[in-house]
Structure formats: structure tokens, C-alpha cells
Amino acid sequence: MDIDTIAAVATPPGEGGIGIIRLSGKKSLEIADAIFKGASEKPLSGLEERRLNYGHIVNPKDRRAVDEVMAVYMKEPKTYTKEDVVEIHCHGGAISVRRILELVLLEGARLAEKGEFTKRAFLNGRIDLSQAEAVIDLIKAKTDANFDMSLNQLEGSMTLKVRELQNELLSMLAHIEASIDFPDQDVEEITSEELKKTAKHVYEEIDKLIATSNTGRIIKEGVKTVILGKPNVGKSSLMNALLRENRAIVTDIPGTTRDIIEEYVNINGIPLRIVDTAGIRETDDLVEKIGVERAKEMLRDADLAIVVFDCSKELEQEDIEIISLVKDKPAIVLFNKTDLDSKLREEDVSNMLKDKYIITTSMLEGKGIDKLEEKLKEMFLSSEVEIGEDPIVTNTRQRDLLIKAKENVQDALDALNMEMPVDCIEVDIKGCWENLGFITGDSIGEDIIDKIFKNFCIGK
Ligand code: GDP
Ligand code: ZN
């Protein structure tokens, strides 16, 4: 494959201790030699491989120093991309990385696209597609659980499982071929039983994988949570209590709309992605600030609503409005301020919100938060989510393919049960094999590959 040499700044923008410019491709070392001058004037290629070498980047036109750097080269194939790779570690900050990148490009490298280094690792066969996806997830991980899950996938847990299932399908195909070659009645009967057994097993295994996808999504994206309640019921106090007890909030993340802020709270490994806490915290009234329409919209794709009532007050019109908003949503109801005289009975709410779980709390006294956390765990981690060796489906692409593969096996099983000739099921088994192969990217179209790598950042 004759592909060009790519380059990008691998460190995030802004000031930092060091900045790294990375190159990958046949001309990496040649380009580095043109602009790097080591101690005793040696070019990079004259220095030891896989070692950080001290030197300067110089402008080849006037040999003037651009920055003082450490540089390393790694010969293919044992590199991230399986191509020759050069890394130049310069002083952190916008100017140095920009100047060096400019020189590198002038010497013939092309600016890398998003994810292009990882794409090359995939195209050159170092990692498969599920592993490439794991790299994106690692970078974007907001919780330890998410990171661990992705690391597992990067190390090949999904790949291994897919290969294992594909091998079973191959053995089925071999059986089918055999019975076509020796169309003996007995052989066919034995074959049919064997095939059913294997197909059932594959079916169950695929089903198990699909079942992990909800956990995978929640670990990855968090439980999208909206806290609702009229002013003064204790929403901010709840937020603060959650933040305080679960220090591991990662960061404020600006959402798609300018005024939406998401905050992650880590509860027993479940990331709650609480939406619009800024609204709650700053204006003390989410519903009033954003309006009922907006609240409805936020609730539409929320996984959970936490509805807070002040039980020292009787229900008001506003409470009723909020109740009607969350009627058909997964919701937990909090009766807050239980330290005060109660004017609210559980029936008042449970009449209108059937089968919603009610927890009594006092944010003032710190009571009830533990019960809330218990309940969250129960709701979202029904299958306990030990991040172990087993693969977890981490995105909808994988999930959709598994669903297709499962349909293929189902068709095969139906055909077997109807005692159709075994060669009729061959096409289903092949279809299943192929759909599983799309997960690892054994056979997949250019457009899909491009789409996947678009999610990366530059320089990865
Ligand atoms: P928000 O407007 O819904 O965000 O409510 P806040 O969390 O700002 O609380 C409003 C007021 O109620 C504050 O003065 C809190 O200290 C108080 N508050 C919150 N939770 C409790 C509680 O459980 N008991 C009592 N007595 N007061 C509370
Ligand atoms: Zn508030």
C-alpha cells in the first residue's frame, strides 16, 4: 500500500508542559531528518531507535533553531499504525507545535484527518474495528467503569467472542457441506441434530451479548437524568448531596445548546448524567426557567426523572403539572423535608403516579440519599455490572449487527425445525457469520469505516 505520510499535533490544544507532533508513514523519518538536528549534528535516523533523543528542530531553509525538542522514531511494523512513526516532543504551547507542524507539512507530510492514525492501525491489521471503537471510548470515558470497559474491548474481549462464534458457524457450514457431499439419510439426520445444537448455542450467546448492551450504554453515556420540582423543594440540595458524596464528578460538559450543562455524578459505578444542573443551581427553578415545553423535550430522551416534592406543603398546581409530565417516564419520587411537619401524604402523589417509587428524604439531615442510590442501582444495573473479562456491547452499531446475526440464526433454527434440507440453512449461517464479521470489521464498507473514525479527535 503506497499511502502518504500523515502528521498532526497529538496533544490537546492549550498550554502544557510538552506538546507532541506525531508522524506516520514511509516518509516520517526522512521528514524528521530534514528538520531535526541532534547533539553532535546527527540526524534522527543516525540515533538510536525507540529512544527519546535530544536535539533541535531547525528550519531547513536557514538552519535556524525553531525549538528545543526530544524526538523518537519507531520503525514499522511494531508501532501504533504499523507504519514508521516519529514523535517530536517540544515545549507545550501553541507557537512551538504550530511551527513544527508547519515545517513537517512543508517537508511533504499531509495533515492527518480525525482518527486517521487509529484508522491506519485498523487498515494495516493491527487492531480490528471493535478495538478501534474502544480507543475512541477510552479517550472519551467519563468514569472509571467506562474506561475499564473500553480497555477490555481494546484488549480484544469482543474480538475473541466474535471469533469464537464464527468458528462455531464455520463448523456448521462444514457439516452442511459434508451432508451435501454424502447425501445419505443417516448422515443427514445426525447432521440436523448437531446443527440444531450448535445453532441454539450460538443463538444463546448472541442473546447474552445483546443483553449487555443496555449496561454498556449506561456505563458509556450515563443515565440521562432530569431533576424536576417547583422552586424551593430541595433540588439544589439534592444535587449538592449527590456531588458531595460522590466526589467523582468528572467535569462540566457543555451540551449542544449553549445554556445546557451536563454534570456527571458517579453512583456505585453508575454515571448519572444530570442535565441542566446549571439551570437548577442558578435560577432555583428548572421548570420556570426553561418552560414546560422545554422540560418535556428534555424528558423525552431522558432515562430517568427525579421528581422532588416538599412534603411540608400541600400539593400545588405546579406540582400537578410536573406530575403529568413524568407520568409515563421512569421516575423516582422524593418526598423531601421530612424533618418538618408533613402536610403531604404518599397517596396524594401515588394516586397520580402509579407504580413510581417514593423515597422520603431530608436533605437537611442527610437522610434518604442512601435509599436513592440503592434504588438507582436496582433500576439500572439489574444484571450486576462487574467489569470483568466478558465483552460488553458498547455501541448501537455493534448491537444492531448482533440483532441481525440473531435473526439469521433464528431463521436457520426455524428451517431446521421444519426439516428443510440442510443446504437451505446455509445462507442463514453465512449471513450470521458475515454480520458478526462486521463487528470486527472483517468485511465492511469504506463509508462505514469513515463514519466510525470521524468520531475521533485530530492526532489520534
Ligand atoms: P430548590 O429551589 O428546589 O433547588 O431548593 P433548594 O435546594 O435550594 O432548597 C430550598 C430551601 O429549602 C433551602 O433553604 C434549603 O436549605 C431548604 N431545604 C432543602 N432540603 C431541606 C430539607 O430536607 N429539610 C428542610 N427543613 N429544609 C430543606
Ligand atoms: Zn435550587
From TrEMBL:
Instruction: Locate the residues binding (6S)-5-formyl-5,6,7,8-tetrahydrofolate.
Output: R22, E87, R126, K460
Q: Which domain of life is it from?
A: Bacteria
Q: List, in alphabetical order, the Gene Ontology terms for molecular function in this entry.
A: GTP binding; GTPase activity; identical protein binding; metal ion binding
Recorded GO cellular component terms are:
cytosol
Which residues does the annotation say bind GTP?
Answer: 232-237, 251-257, 276-279
What is the first-listed, main subcellular location in coarse terms?
A: cytoplasm
Q: How does it assemble?
A: Homodimer. Heterotetramer of two MnmE and two MnmG subunits.
Stated name of the protein: tRNA modification GTPase MnmE
- Per the UniProt record, the source organism is Andreesenia angusta
Q: What is the lineage of its organism?
A: Bacteria, Bacillati, Bacillota, Tissierellia, Tissierellales
